[in-house]
Design goal:
With 226 residues, this protein is mostly helical. It has helices spanning 11-29, 32-39, 53-68, 80-95, 101-105, 116-128, 133-157, 172-178, 183-193, 196-225. The chain has 10 helices and no strands. The protein is flat, with a radius of gyration of 21 Å.
């Protein structure tokens, strides 16, 4: 006899189950069949909700955004540098809660408008600081892209594979030995593959400073010429 799920199967429930399973399998090991087994249903039942794995990833990313919630919002009177920095820090924290979380989040299409209020709030802060609409959008997307890209590399550096140490991170001693003829490249390993918190903060500070020096200035030039 085929078991019947006692709880209604919907997109949100499937996405939440997939996020739980993600921490066990990683993105490569995540399958609709495995999710169906966890939900105690037959795999075809999931295809009523998701036509393929990408559609599932879209819903998973949307659920991650929902969970960020108010932590991702900017207060109207916040300094734009403080607001942008806090938002990107918060995003990184959330992405790191899931194995391969940044890969799941990257390149997906949200299935609802849960992202709209946070984005609107941050764009308003930037606009209130004098950014033109296009430069505000560019500033936001630049910091957003940096954060996702950093976490993708951060999570990839901790996974299993050739040339990794016992802790799953890169074997820097072996790397330095291979790069003995390239001392600067060898020494760079400590910066790139260790102290991720410090690396993220230093990179984010550079991004925010660069935004202030280029995009904000571009907005001011546009107003002056108008």
């Amino acid at each position: 006899m085929v078991k019947v799920a006692t709880t209604k199967l919907d997109r949100t429930r499937v996405a939440r189950t997939a996020l739980d399973l993600l921490n066990e399998t990683g993105l490569e090991g995540l399958t609709l069949r495995g999710i169906a087994q966890r939900l105690d249903v037959k795999a075809p039942a999931l295809y009523w909700h998701f036509k393929d794995k990408q559609a599932l990833l879209d819903e998973m990313a949307t659920e991650m955004m929902r969970r960020m919630g108010e932590e991702f919002l900017a207060t109207p009177d916040a300094d734009w540098r403080v607001a942008l920095t806090a938002a990107m820090r918060g995003m990184r924290v959330h992405l790191l809660r899931y194995r391969d979380g940044a890969k799941v989040f990257s390149g997906t299409h949200y299935t609802d408008l849960s992202y709209a209020a946070p984005m609107e709030a941050h764009l308003r802060v930037l606009a209130g600081a004098g950014f033109a609409p296009d430069t505000a959008a560019r500033a936001w997307f630049t910091a957003y892209s940096y954060t996702i890209g950093f976490v993708i590399e951060e999570q990839a550096a901790g996974g299993p594979g050739p040339g990794r140490g016992d802790d799953g991170g890169y074997d820097l001693a072996a790397r330095a030995e291979r790069l003995a003829a390239y001392p600067l490249a060898a020494a760079a390993g400590e910066v790139m593959f260790r102290s991720h918190d410090r690396g993220f903060e230093e990179g984010l500070a550079a991004i925010v400073t660069g935004i202030g020096a280029t995009l904000a200035t571009a907005g001011e030039r546009g107003r002056d010429s108008g």
